[in-house]
What does this fold into?
Amino acid sequence: MTVRVGVIGGGQLARMMIAPAVELGIDLRVLAEDEGMSAQLAATAVGDYRDLETVRAFARDVDVITFDHEHVPQDVLRALVGDGVQVHPGPDALQFAQDKLVMRRRLAELGIPQPEWGAVRDADELQAFIDDHGGGAVVKTPRGGYDGKGVRVVRAGTDAADWFSDLADGEALLAEELVSFTRELAQQVARRPGGEVVAYPVVETVQRDGVCAEVIAPAPGASIRLAEVAEGIGRAIAEGIGVTGMLAVELFETDDERILVNELAMRPHNSGHWSQDGAVTGQFEQHLRAVADLPLGRTEPRSPWTVMVNILGGPAEGALEDRFAGAMAEHPEAKIHTYGKAPRPGRKVGHVNVTGDDLDDAVYTARAAAARFL
Amino acid sequence: MTVRVGVIGGGQLARMMIAPAVELGIDLRVLAEDEGMSAQLAATAVGDYRDLETVRAFARDVDVITFDHEHVPQDVLRALVGDGVQVHPGPDALQFAQDKLVMRRRLAELGIPQPEWGAVRDADELQAFIDDHGGGAVVKTPRGGYDGKGVRVVRAGTDAADWFSDLADGEALLAEELVSFTRELAQQVARRPGGEVVAYPVVETVQRDGVCAEVIAPAPGASIRLAEVAEGIGRAIAEGIGVTGMLAVELFETDDERILVNELAMRPHNSGHWSQDGAVTGQFEQHLRAVADLPLGRTEPRSPWTVMVNILGGPAEGALEDRFAGAMAEHPEAKIHTYGKAPRPGRKVGHVNVTGDDLDDAVYTARAAAARFL
It folds into this structure.
C-alpha cells in the first residue's frame, strides 16, 4: 500500500521531499508550524511540534514520522515511540543531534576523531579550558543552535558570561579547541532501520558568517584515503548511534591532515543539496526511502563536478521569482531550487546546482546564477 | 511575483509537473476531472473541462492555462482567449493536435514530410485510396484517438464501415499509406510565446499494441544528418503552427531513409519522459518554463544513454507500491516514477528511467526494473 510519511516541520527540507515523494508515490504529509510555510503544498496540519497532543494527532494518520528539523522535544518523541509510532530517526539517535555535549560524549565513546572538548559550567572552567588550549576556544550552547547561532569564538572565560548566566542548575556549555583547519568537508550517509547504509562522496563546504554558502561535490583534491576516512566516520556514527534516514557529518580537514567531526545533522542537510541534481539518488529521495524502510538508491555522482551555491537573502526589492527570467536566460544549465520564502537579509531562500566536467566552469556558473537572485 | 500555472486535466502529465513546479516556485493549480486523480496533490478544482463556466472559473485565478491532454473543445479555448486569458498552447496551435485531418493539411502546406494521406468520406473513397497505395491503408478517426485507439489497418474500403456510419455530414476519416518503416522516432522541442525554440535529441520509441513501451535516448545509431533532419522537422512544425510549450513529433524512419511525421502532441509526452532523469532540463520543467514565458533550459543528455520503460498494467494483485522494495533492492540505479493510478491491464501506471554509459546494460536494467512491477 501507499506509504504515508509524516514530516514534522514545514521548512525547505520538507518542501524538497515533495518532488521525490510524488515520483515514488509516497503520501507525504507535513505538520507545519504555520500557514504558508515552504512545504505548504504537502501540509495536512498546522500546529506546535512541542505539543504532544498535536503531534500525536498528526502521527495517527501516517505510517512513519520523520523531521524537517531536530527540535521536537525528547518527551514528545518518546511518547510517540511508546504509542507504537515508527519514528525515524528515533529519539535515541536524535538526542545526539539535539545536544552537542551529549554528542561529544558519545563520539568519544565511539572513538570518532573530534576536536578536544570539555563541558564548562562557569567562566573559571572556560578560562581553564582556554589556558589548556592555546589561548582560545569555541564555545557552543549545547542546544538550539543552527547556522552559526549559539557558537562563539572566545579568548577569555568571561567572553561567554551571558550564556553562563542563562544556564540552569547542572547545565554546562560546550568548549572546543580552536581547530586549525584548511577547509570544511561534509559526509552524507543514509541508514535504514534494518541496518543498510550507503555513503555519498565526501564534499567540500564553504561557510560564510557561519552559514553554508557553497558546496563542491566531490571535495576537490580528495585523496582516496581522505574519502575512505570520511566515509568510515559517517558509517561509524550512523551505526554507532543508530541513525535512520539521512545523516550529515560536518568535518574539519586540519592542516596536519586529520579529519575531525564538527557537527551532526540527522535529516537532509544543506551540504547534500548538490545530490538533487548531481547524484543518482538525491538526498531527499534517499531520506524518504530510508525512513520508509525501502532499499536505498545509488549514491554516485552523475557528473564529474556538482557545485551548489545558496541564495542567501534574495533580492532587496521584489520577489525571488522576479529574477527567474534573468537567471534562466543567462544560465540555462543552472538548476534552480526555491523555498517559497520571502527574501530577508541572510535568509536561505533557495539554491542553485550546476553540474559539469570542468570545476572552474561549474563554480563560475553556479555563483553567477545564484547572484542573479540577489 | 509567483507565476500561477493552471493545468486542465489531472492525469500523470499534470502530476509530473508538480516536482519542477515546487523547485521553481511556480504555483501549479490543476483542474482535475475527478477526485483522486494522478495530480490530486495540485488539484484546486474538480470539474468538466468541456464546460465553459467551469474552465472560466478555474482560469480566473491563474496567470496561464496549459494542458494535461488535448481534449478541451475549441469553443472553450477561444472563449478563454476572448476573455484575455493566456492559453498555451493556444487554440490555433492546438487544433492541429486535436484533428488529424487538419494536421495533415497544415503539414502539407508547411512542406513537412509525411505519409501520403487523404480524407475519405465513405467506403468507396477508402477503397480508391487503398487501390492507389498498394492494397492497404491506415485509417484514423481524426479526433479523440490516443494510445492506438481510433487507428486501424485496413485492406478493403468496407473495413471501416462502422466508423463511416458514425460520421456526421461533411466529416471524413483520415486514410494514410501503410508506411514501411524500420523504426519509430520522436522529436521533442519546446517553444516560448516569443519564439525561442530548443530541441531535444531525437529518440527511438518502441510501441507495443499501439502503446509506447520503451524509449531510448538518443536514438541509437542516429547519424548527424538524421538528428538534424528530425530537429529541423520539430522546429519547423513548432514555428509553422505557433506551438507554445512542449511539442512531441512522432516520426517514422523508413527503410528508404526518409523521416515522415506520424503524430503530434502539444504537451509533455511519453516519448519525453526519459528527460526527467536523462536531460539537463526535463520536459515537465521545460513545459512550465515555456508556458510561463520563462527562458528555456538546456536540453543535452546528462548520460550517453537513457532508457525509459513504461510500467503497463501493474501487478495483477495488490498495489504498485507493494513492489517497490523488490524493484529498489534489485535495481538501486533505477529512477521510479509512479502515477498514483490503480493497476489495470494495459494501463500506464508508471515508468522507470535508467541512465548509463552502456546501452545494453541500461536497456536490461530498465526492463528488469519495470518488470518487477508486473
